[in-house]
Amino acid sequence: MVVDFGAQYAQLIARRVREAQVYSEVVPHDTPVEEMLRRDPAAIVLSGGPASVYAEDAPQVDAELFRAGVPVLGICYGFQAMTRALGGTVEHTGTREFGRTELAVCSGGGTLHQELPVNHPVWMSHGDSVSKAPEGFRVIAETDDTPVAAFENPESGLAGVQYHPEVAHSPHGQEVLRRFLHDIAGIRPNWTTTSIVDETVTAVRERIGGARAICGLSGGVDSAVAGALVNRAIGDRLTCVFVDHGLLRSGERTQVERDFVAATGARLVVIDAVQQFTDALAGVTDPEEKRKIIGREFIRTFERAARELKEEAGQAGEQVEYLVQGTLYPDVVESGGGSGTANIKSHHNVGGLPEDLRFDLVEPLRSLFKDEVRRVGLELGLPETIVHRQPFPGPGLAIRIIGEVTPRRLETLRAADAIAREELTASGLDRDIWQCPVVLLADVQSVGVQGDGRTYGHPVVLRPVSSEDAMTADWTRLPYEVLERISTRITNEVADVNRVTVDVTSKPPGTIEWE
Ligand code: XMP
């Protein structure tokens, strides 16, 4: 159990714990101790946090937590809060340590630093410092500015570190976490991709029983893995629905029809709604209006499919009761539902489906992080092309055509986008970039010359970005040779386009998509 003291690091700690093959969940720091213990954690990690233990409203740790016999590791703020609760001293020394700091292990380094170099770098970020460890604790590391940089009391299963073992800038941090989890807390490392698949499949099977379920596939990773897992659990009592709205990229429909089905054997219904969306979008240029229309038409189409399935099942004396969604753990934590029980907002990742659709939700990925979802996908046999797919927005190419969406413009953009993707893949850059939208400036025309003749065509914009989570992004410095190949091919091969430009704006101030 990772207790979140409000730092951005709590989820990262939870991921690192899982990398040590131990299942973890995040709970807010104001969760009562009885509630924490009721959930029977094998160990507890107290995260860092932005507060000073001296601040008036500083979150505290109830000393009861340390008397329950559950091993606890305090990190940064958690280390200081633990110190205070156990009678040690935290001082506002005025010395701040921020960033890479040399750690010197002492007293043999204790269990936490066993076999680590005596001096090694760690990542620090703190103003207050522990000046005296609580009674019974051994100081096991120090730095030039911090006399107590780590302590432990292995007999009682308690330990703490001032530095952040969870960040990549602490190169031995993962070993320290492993020592705590495996050696001090004695937890067996058995959270593996195979065990995730087995446990989830069993849970889904129990939940759905003999009923039927429906899953909206978007072509993205999450819905594909969710669908594959539920398919493994209930076979053809699951129907996957894929709406082709005509705003897809080249090859996407085929990828779902062929690759997803080949890998999973799932029952798939593809709904051809191209004409419906084309008609609904005719004459519309405003980005928000486009998004609203697409959302509305998507829901209508999905509802129709769901109704038809229900009727079909009803005739066979069965019921479709469940809707599968690809909600991930970070969404659950961020909507305050870290405990996995109360006040969990349902995130809709298939176009915001309405309440009155009357399905119970099945969210097989709700305890998983994105990297685990990808591993589960591979374990289930999904191809790399699906599992490592870059993000693509629900409204598709419609929000990458600046101006009215018409079949001809879609065809132009689809062709330019396919070339950009081919070249980026061929240069081995797919994993380095987050995504690279190609945008068609359909209402802009400029003069060009091709084959001795004048052209009056449209520009396309390449928007390569690097990002961790799409909340912020930087533009990616693509090699000139790659840009050159993309530019030459697009202007040669795509009619209507006579200029290729690159967007060099970060986010903020730009967004990733243009609309
Ligand atoms: P922006 O443009 O807001 O995009 O910087 C951030 C990320 O979200 C994707 N995106 C969407 N994904 N439905 C989606 O499923 C949408 O309506 C949508 N709009 C943007 C975008 O591709 C980027 O990864």
Automatic annotation (TrEMBL):
The keyword Nucleotide-binding applies. InterPro entries: Class_I_gatase-like, GATASE, GMP_synth_C, GMP_synth_GATase, GMP_synthase, GMPS_ATP_PPase_dom, NAD/GMP_synthase, Rossmann-like_a/b/a_fold. One of its GO terms (molecular function) is GMP synthase (glutamine-hydrolyzing) activity. The keyword Transcription regulation does not apply. Catalyzes the synthesis of GMP from XMP. It catalyses: XMP + L-glutamine + ATP + H2O = GMP + L-glutamate + AMP + diphosphate + 2 H(+). This is GMP synthase [glutamine-hydrolyzing]. The gene is guaA.
